[in-house]
Amino acid sequence: MNSFILATGVFDPASLVLLIWVLLTCGVVSYFSYRRHVSPLRLRAIPGIAAIEEAVGRATEQGKPIVFTTGWGGDIQRPTTLAALNLLRFVAGKAASYGCRILFPTHDPVIAEAAKEIIRTAYNEAGHPDQFREDDVTFVSPSQFGYASGVDGIVSRQKPGAIFLFGTFEGEALILAETGNINGALQIAGTDSTIQLSFFIVACDYTLIGEELYTASAYLTDDHRVQSSMYAQDLIRAVLVTLLILLPILAMLGVNLYKEIL
Amino acid sequence: MTNRLAWIATLVTGLFMMAQYFIKTEATNAIYTTLLDYYQIIFAVSMIVGGIGLLKQHSLKVQRSSQQRGYSLITITAILFMVIVAVISGTGATSPYQWAFNNLQAPMQATTFSLLAFFVASAAYRGFRVKSAPAFVLALAAIIVLVGKSGFGEMISQQLPAIAGWVLNNPSTAAKRGILIGVGIGSVATALRVILGIERSYR
User: Fold this and answer.
1) Is B113 domain-assigned?
2) Is the same domain home to B84 and B133?
3) Lowest model confidence (mean pLDDT) among A42-51, A85-94, A148-157, B125-134
4) Fold designation for A47-219
5) I want to staple A208 with a disulfide (CB 3.0 to 4.6 A). Which of A36, A149, A212, B173 is the partner?
6) Is the entire prediction scored with pTM above 0.80?
7) Which of A134, A194, A228, A234 best tests the B interface by mutation, with the highest count of B CBs <10 A?
8) Closest of A185, A230, A203 to residue A86, by C-alpha
9) pLDDT for res A6
């Protein structure tokens, strides 16, 4: 069967290693997510995640709104945007139960529609559907610096108590983070863009680094399936780190498996 | 029922998108292209919805006679102007639309972008304040790279550019790759959680 697929050119043999890694990751994540007997997991404390509730509470006490934005770099298909929207569900839920206004400016009208539904659902579930304001979810501009100017304008005029910058950010990252800093907001950021991480680390109060953004929802939910999938991620990473140590040693001994395995 | 349908649609589309990356046939390519076309249609329609929403929002602000009325008036005028000139005279190189883009929008974007220079300076000032051991490492690495990569570095020592290069190519790249490995695994796990319906932002 394999040779048939390869012979017909349907499958590119160069992708075989990638396919194996994807299937392995999917298999391990699915197994841990759906296994029946689960012992409680001990989660490493991440200050940025613990501070999310505090940030919403602080803004509520100050009588100020909160701003949540997903950055200019990602559309709705990007896993980082999906992870950010999962976090929005939690943040909007807290904001709705505290009676805090949440502003969501974005560069993408599809993300705006998705965010509108998430925030509306959060207010409905909190029993305050009347407090949801459709105007607070704003499609600002598809242009990068048009979006940055729009968000900066909202932050400068509304003076939010807390700002959440979760998603894929590019050149606008520091412009947004510094404006938030100047306006005295408590800022929590999280991104997969390694270049922008350094800007967030110096300009924000808390920063979720890379993968922490994807695991944040596991910390904020009681669903064991989500938490178990995080355990699976750690397991795969441990395998990768072991290979990264083992393969160079094998290469020094004349067994070169780098290209075959990674 | 609606939720179940949404989940089934996510599951089927997600698994197909993953499979089509590896299996290249005429049928999978055709379905993939069609799905991308549908996404473009959804994006275009939502762009119209977004534009109308923006106009509606700013019209309300003008009616409420808030302090921000001026900004809203400028926004409404700019949106209507660009739409009207594009419809009347097209978007060619010599059209008023292109003129407005080159002479109004592009300079405004460049202005916002140039703010970065000042923000980098203020962020660097905060970042370089040595309050702890990690902050000291950050400041030291930054100073070595800043000085080493400028012409000034070579004047101080011939070795400084090489040291700056080593910092960028070894510890910095190693840290970046560590983060990227985590991001890669996290992306697959997040996508899988969404595809399997374990984690969903819709109810």
Assistant:
1) no
2) no
3) B125-134
4) Rossmann fold (3.40.50)
5) A212
6) yes
7) A194
8) A230
9) 58
- Output the CA–CA distances (angstroms, integers) from residue A106 to A70, A174, B160, B176, B178, in the order listed: 7, 16, 43, 27, 30
- Does B40 map to a domain? yes
Q: Least CB-CB distance to A174: which of B120, B181, B192?
A: B120
Residue ranges, comma separated, of all CATH 3.40.50 domains in chain A are: 47-219
**DSSP sequence for A157-215:** HH--SEEEEEE---TTHHHHHHHHHHTT-EEEEEES-HHHHHHHHHHSSEEEETHHHHH
User: The tokens of A156 are what?
Assistant: 């400068």
Which of A120-134, A172-186, A218-232 comes out lowest in average pLDDT?
Answer: A218-232
User: Which residues in chain B have Cβ-Cβ distances shorter than 8 Å to A230?
Assistant: 189
What ipTM was assigned to the predicted interfaces of this complex? Answer: 0.84
Whether residue B109 and residue A144 make contact (CB cut-off 8 A), yes or no, is yes
Give the residue numbers spanning the domain of B75: 1-89
Within a domain: residue B97?
A: no
3 state SS of B44: helix
Is residue A3 scored above 70 in pLDDT?
A: no
Residue B17 domain-assigned?
Answer: yes
What value does the mean pLDDT take over residues A67-90?
Answer: 92
Q: Between B61 and A183, name the one with better pLDDT.
A: A183
